[in-house]
Amino acid sequence: MSDIRLERLADILVNYSTSVQPGEWVGILGDTAALPALRAVYRKVIQAGGYPTLILNDEQMLRTLLREGNDDQLNWLDPSQSLYYDKADVYIRVNAPSNTRAMTTIDARRNQMLQKARRPWLDTRMRRAAEGKMKWVGTMYPTEALAQEAGMSLEEYEDFLYGATFADREDPVSEWRKMGEMQQQKIDWLKGRKIVKVEGPNADLELSIEGRVFINACGEHNMPDGEIFTGPVEDSVNGWIRFTYPSIVAGRAVEGIELRFEQGKVVEASSKTNQDLLYAQLDTDPGARYLGEFAIGTNFGINRFTGMILFDEKIGGTIHCAIGRSYAETGGRNESAVHWDMICDMRTDSTITVDGDLFYKNGEFVV
């Protein structure tokens, strides 16, 4: 029997997040484990009059490529997917990992090679999105692996996921619009301001937002959502920050990351685990040592760490920073094949001031 919450989630993705219109080319991308969600999204696209293309991903095949593929195969770009990124109108992604540690033993350098090779797809999607030519959204489908990672049963994780996306409400869209209104008030207050100072037991960091734009993330690109974010001025970041939660990339968790910045660049980096992966990410290209994003999480429906960045970066009472690529719509100019989010808890003895005015204290906005 179909779960009404899954039907609501599909409706949010198609009719709110991307607002699919008749005649639009819609890519529906996802893991094989997400087939129930992909089918629900496909049905909603058909009902909206869109032209759907299904693009499946399989973890085992990806591991085969990374382990057994030669350099030419890792660097090859599927021309059918290149055409899709060049021409399609909508990108809807549904991730559903069956093993969150599936890439743990993969050589980080080979994963970086594949990531760099596929950078043109990311570049094209982000450029076209900034130009208003490609609408996009990403979400998750509940799996046993995600539930285990979060320390929950599958049923508990389903309740968590659908609650975080408001799909457990009769009118989810109205809830997302309320969040958008609240966040827009904060963004309006920030307009025209320059210097952000983050202070607390986990940070003493200063950066400039002069001339940059904060984005109101209220479900139009990520589902769930709940953050305001910008791209800091590239050479303005100074100080240090310690990230509270593990940061996971390619199935490997890097814990206890601490970064020190001078004139925007990471000059010192350490972690308690998987330092080789941390350094591999930082050394991917010159832009990987600069911040591409500074953000404040606002979704208090996400009240625990789950090991999945789509949820964790939105945790109410946290900030997150991403090394690497910035989003062009923020005014950010940093370019990199990397965009790696790291989360810092701000709920204890922590403040954010902007141009000397208190903006945020202990996980809550004060303006």
List keywords for this structure.
367 residues; alpha+beta; Thermophilic metalloprotease-like; 2 domains; eight-stranded antiparallel β-sheet; 12 helices; 20 strands; globular
Explain this structure.
The model has no long low-confidence stretch (mean pLDDT 94). The chain contains twelve helices and 20 strands. Helices cover 34% and strands 28% of the residues. Strands 14-13-10-6-5-18-19-20 form an eight-stranded antiparallel sheet, covered by helices on one side. It has a five-stranded parallel sheet with strand order 2-1-3-4-8. The protein has 367 residues and is α+β, with helices and mostly antiparallel strands. The radius of gyration is 20 Å and the shape is globular. α1 packs across α2 (35-48). It has two domains: 4-170, Thermophilic metalloprotease-like; 186-365, no CATH class. It has helices at residues 4-17, 35-48, 59-68, 71-75, 79-87, 108-117, 119-130, 144-150, 154-164, 172-190, 275-282, 309-312, and strands spanning 25-31, 51-57, 90-95, 135-140, 195-200, 203-208, 215-217, 222-223, 227-230, 238-242, 247-249, 252-254, 258-262, 265-270, 291-297, 318-324, 339-345, 351-354, 357-361, 364-365.
Uncertain residue ranges = none
- Please give the alpha-carbon distance between the first and last residues: 46 Å
Radius of gyration: 20 Å
Please provide the count of β strands. 20
Helix content: 25-40%
Provide a count of the helices. Answer: 12
- Major β-sheet strand ordering: 14-13-10-6-5-18-19-20
* Arithmetic mean pLDDT: 94
Strand content: 25-35%
Total domain count:
2
Task: Summarize the biggest pleated sheet.
Answer: 8 strands, antiparallel
Q: Which of globular, elongated, flat, extended, rod-shaped describes the shape?
A: globular
Secondary-structure-based class equals alpha+beta
